């Protein structure tokens, strides 16, 4: 078993702060995503946005964003995310995590400028595609960068903060929308859009100092760069001997993995033990999307307004606060609980929330009580999602994939996830709209039923990875340990007859920078 306590002391504390600093800079990509979520949803209920980009509706005696336009807007945004997710596998494998982060920051800066200056629907759709492209890059590069640079005792805490950052800035975006939505000029939506500029600008400036991950260098046969990268990430106070040991083990496991599993081509995702890792990862991200979160975040304000909820913008702010509270709770859960129980109970809570407000909608349709119940249980859903699947889902994705295929695995996962999003987002207006299926709050029956299946799958197939190093997780997968035995597995440093220690011993001294050389440099 791994050491669950983690290192302590001044030198380790300074190192942890340094690691967290790099991770938070990379997390600027998540800031942009949070703001974009709030704006995309909130603009649908914004009078001036409807006036400028909507179509005339006789019944409403005004311009409205039609169901078809909503489908087009969300579909194009998600198409951009799918395209960038597909490209990120190649970019991450050949050019590194840092390159993908830079491109994500660049698109994040360009997107709001385009959307704030265009005056036609076609121009807005160009901006939405670029927005989706940047969001896809953010998801597929933040997770591997954080997973590969943080030590095991910090990895869970860092990765759960991804959803927390998104939730905080979704709330910020909702608050900005609340403050500007009644403006009669184009600044009603231009103002919120321009708030997206700051985060990518900070990252574009900081990218010069952000190092590439040591595991990327190790997987490309560049051990000297791997050691230098680890020293920069851990900082000058971190013991050189521990850096040497850590990187040697990374290189050794990479060599064993390549000897047993072969190359890092796309087809290798579906071969050997990587097939299992790919299937579990893809199903995990799909479970996350089909929880109903895409429906709530994409159409929350609109859904509240057609369901009879008073002050839908205010309710959106409240649900945003619930999301942040859930993300805060996730920090405690990830520290003291395993990944499996968090996700099992989270899916159960989300399913209960969806089924409850759907049942009340059937029992008392159109009533004030039903509207209040909807607001309350959507808030509970957002809290439970923020504390469980929203926060821990990225942790699982970062931990389950092998080093040589991490970029491609996460790329494939988000292709699947964004594709599920397209299905949900494009189909939702027709499920809940009065002119179509008119399910309204009864759509909760669909997502509640899916949640039951998620609970069952998670219990039987999702392995426990809490407090394990990425190399220990590699050993368990390559030794074909059953999912429900991961928690109690004792690490042997032996993979299918190959000794990790033997590989470490065969790492040539010329590939290492000695402690004395490092001290002389200082």
UniProtKB/TrEMBL annotation:
The Major facilitator superfamily (MFS) profile domain, residue ranges: 22-466
One GO cellular component, as annotated: membrane
Keyword NADP (UniProt): no
Transmembrane feature ranges: 19-38, 73-93, 100-123, 129-147, 154-173, 193-210, 279-301, 313-333, 342-363, 369-397, 409-432, 444-462
GO molecular function: carbohydrate:proton symporter activity
Keyword Cell inner membrane assigned: no
Family designation: Belongs to the major facilitator superfamily. Sugar transporter (TC 2.A.1.1) family.
PANTHER family: MAJOR FACILITATOR SUPERFAMILY (MFS) PROFILE DOMAIN-CONTAINING PROTEIN (PTHR48022:SF10), PLASTIDIC GLUCOSE TRANSPORTER 4 (PTHR48022)
Protein name: Major facilitator superfamily (MFS) profile domain-containing protein
Species this protein is from: Knufia peltigerae
């Amino acid at each position: 078993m791994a050491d669950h306590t983690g290192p302590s002391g001044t030198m380790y504390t300074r190192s942890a702060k340094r690691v967290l600093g790099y991770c938070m800079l990379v997390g600027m990509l998540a800031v942009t995503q949070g703001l974009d979520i709030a704006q995309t949803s909130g603009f649908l209920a914004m009078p001036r946005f409807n006036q400028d980009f909507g179509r005339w509706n006789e019944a409403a005696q005004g311009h409205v964003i039609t169901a078809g336009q909503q489908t087009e807007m969300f579909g194009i945004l998600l198409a951009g995310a799918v395209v960038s997710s597909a490209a990120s596998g190649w970019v991450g494998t050949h050019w590194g995590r840092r390159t993908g982060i830079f491109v994500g920051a660049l698109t994040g800066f360009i997107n709001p400028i385009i959307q704030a200056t265009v005056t036609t629907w076609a121009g807005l759709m160009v901006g939405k595609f670029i927005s989706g492209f940047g969001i896809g890059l953010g998801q597929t590069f933040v997770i591997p960068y954080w997973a590969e640079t943080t030590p095991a005792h910090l990895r869970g805490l860092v990765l759960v903060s991804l959803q927390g950052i998104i939730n905080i800035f979704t709330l910020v975006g909702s608050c900005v929308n609340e403050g500007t939505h009644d403006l009669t000029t184009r600044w009603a939506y231009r103002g919120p859009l321009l708030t997206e500029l700051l985060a990518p600008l900070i990252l574009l400036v900081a990218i010069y100092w952000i190092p590439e991950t040591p595991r990327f260098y190790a997987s490309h046969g560049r051990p000297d760069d791997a050691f230098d990268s680890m020293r920069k990430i851990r900082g000058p106070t971190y013991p050189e001997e521990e850096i040497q040991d850590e990187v040697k083990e990374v290189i050794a496991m990479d060599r064993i993995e390549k000897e047993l599993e072969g190359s890092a081509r796309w087809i290798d995702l579906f071969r050997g033990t990587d097939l299992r890792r790919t299937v579990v990862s893809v199903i995990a991200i799909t479970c996350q999307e089909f929880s109903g979160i895409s429906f709530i975040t994409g159409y929350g304000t609109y859904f509240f307004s057609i369901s009879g909820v008073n002050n839908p913008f205010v309710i959106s702010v409240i649900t945003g606060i619930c999301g942040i509270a859930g993300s805060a709770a996730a920090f405690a859960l990830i520290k003291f609980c395993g990944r499996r129980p968090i996700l099992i109970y989270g899916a159960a809570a989300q399913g209960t929330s969806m089924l409850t407000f759907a049942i009340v909608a059937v029992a008392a349709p159109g009533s004030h009580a039903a509207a209040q119940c909807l607001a309350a249980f959507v808030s509970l859903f957002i809290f439970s999602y923020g504390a469980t699947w929203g926060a821990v889902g990225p942790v699982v994705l970062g931990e389950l994939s092998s080093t040589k295929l991490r970029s491609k695995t996460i790329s494939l996962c988000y292709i699947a996830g964004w594709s599920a999003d397209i299905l949900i987002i494009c189909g939702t207006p027709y499920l809940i709209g009065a002119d179509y299926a008119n399910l309204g709050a009864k759509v909760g029956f669909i997502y509640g039923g899916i949640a039951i299946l998620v609970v069952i799958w998670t219990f039987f197939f999702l392995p426990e990875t809490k407090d394990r190093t990425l190399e220990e997780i590699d050993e368990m997968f390559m030794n074909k340990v059953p999912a429900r035995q991961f928690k109690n597995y004792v690490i042997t440093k032996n993979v299918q007859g190959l000794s990790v220690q033997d590989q470490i011993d065969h790492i040539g001294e010329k590939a290492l920078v000695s402690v004395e050389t490092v001290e002389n440099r200082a």
